[in-house]
């Protein structure tokens, strides 16, 4: 799971911090590209920005709907132009869990189907829902093949929302993000917790989902 933190669509924001010229620099960044060894983050040039030297030690904090994660890294290189700063860093393998953000979790059970082009289908119910995607438990392992392929997700909505969405469902492209085996929750002990992200969620579906989440948290 930890190696996929940066790829997770449920990430809300990322901060990169380092010391340079005797001052702590903190930059909010976005992930531009990642492979097995390097990750590239971009940001608008901050006011009074001080470019870090190569191999500068740094800390990265990743805020997600599940919690906050941090780790130490090295900034391998930095490119600066008039509109953008691009940081190249080594991809971290281990993360420290910083805090639980239970208020950001929207635990609600709604029927979901995830269907792949070859006909394979996952029929389940959500455990968590966010604007970026869903999470669900399963006793069955998902083949690594399907973890690399896009699918179509259909989520049934509460009947109370039929006025805003006559079809009473959201249909959107989705793809696998990460998994972990539950070791703490007795109800789901040793089950797989899967996270899937929405891909190009249509604006009307986003508005419907946003309203649903507001109802859940009220």
Cα gyration radius (Å):
19 Å
Oligomer: single chain
Q: Alpha-carbon distance between the termini?
A: 31 Å
Instruction: Write the CATH fold name of the largest domain.
Output: Thrombin, subunit H
Low-confidence sequence ranges: 99-104
Structure class: mainly beta
**What kind of sheet is the major sheet?**
7 strands, antiparallel
Strand order of the largest sheet: 9-8-12-13-14-11-10
Range of helix content: under 10%
What is the CATH-assigned architecture of the largest domain? Beta Barrel
Overview of this protein structure:
The protein is mainly β and 218 residues long. The chain contains one helix and 14 strands; from the N terminus they run ββββββββββββββα. It has two domains: 2-102, Pnp Oxidase, Chain A, CATH 2.30.110; 106-217, predicted glycosyltransferase like domains (Thrombin, subunit H), CATH 2.40.10. It has one helix spanning 203-217, and strands at residues 11-20, 23-34, 38-43, 56-64, 67-80, 85-90, 96-100, 111-115, 121-125, 128-130, 133-138, 151-156, 169-181, 192-199. The protein has a seven-stranded antiparallel beta sheet with strand order 9-8-12-13-14-11-10, covered by helices on one side. A six-stranded antiparallel barrel has the order 1-2-3-6-5-4. The longest helix has 15 residues, at 203-217. The protein is elongated and about 60 Å long. The relative contact order is 0.15. Mean pLDDT is 84; it is low at 99-104.
């Amino acid at each position: 799971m930890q190696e996929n933190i940066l790829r997770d669509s449920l990430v809300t924001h990322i901060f990169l911090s380092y010391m340079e010229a005797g001052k702590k620099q903190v930059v909010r960044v976005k992930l531009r590209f990642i492979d097995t060894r390097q990750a590239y983050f971009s940001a608008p040039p901050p006011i009074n920005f001080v470019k870090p030297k190569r191999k500068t030690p740094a800390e990265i904090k990743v805020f997600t709907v599940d919690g906050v994660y941090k780790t130490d890294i090295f900034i391998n290189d930095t490119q600066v132009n008039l509109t953008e700063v691009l940081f190249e860093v080594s991809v971290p393998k281990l993360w420290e869990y910083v805090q639980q953000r239970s208020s950001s979790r929207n635990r609600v059970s709604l029927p979901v189907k995830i269907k792949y082009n070859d006909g394979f289908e996952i029929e389940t119910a959500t455990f968590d829902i966010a604007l970026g995607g869903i999470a669900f438990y399963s006793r069955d392992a998902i083949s690594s093949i399907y973890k690399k392929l896009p699918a179509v997700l259909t989520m049934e909505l509460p009947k109370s929302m039929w006025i805003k969405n006559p079809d009473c469902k959201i249909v959107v492209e989705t793809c696998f993000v990460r998994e972990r085996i539950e070791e703490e929750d007795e109800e789901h002990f040793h089950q797989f917790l899967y996270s899937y992200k929405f891909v190009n969620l249509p604006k009307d579906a986003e508005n419907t989902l946003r309203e649903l989440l507001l109802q859940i948290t009220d």
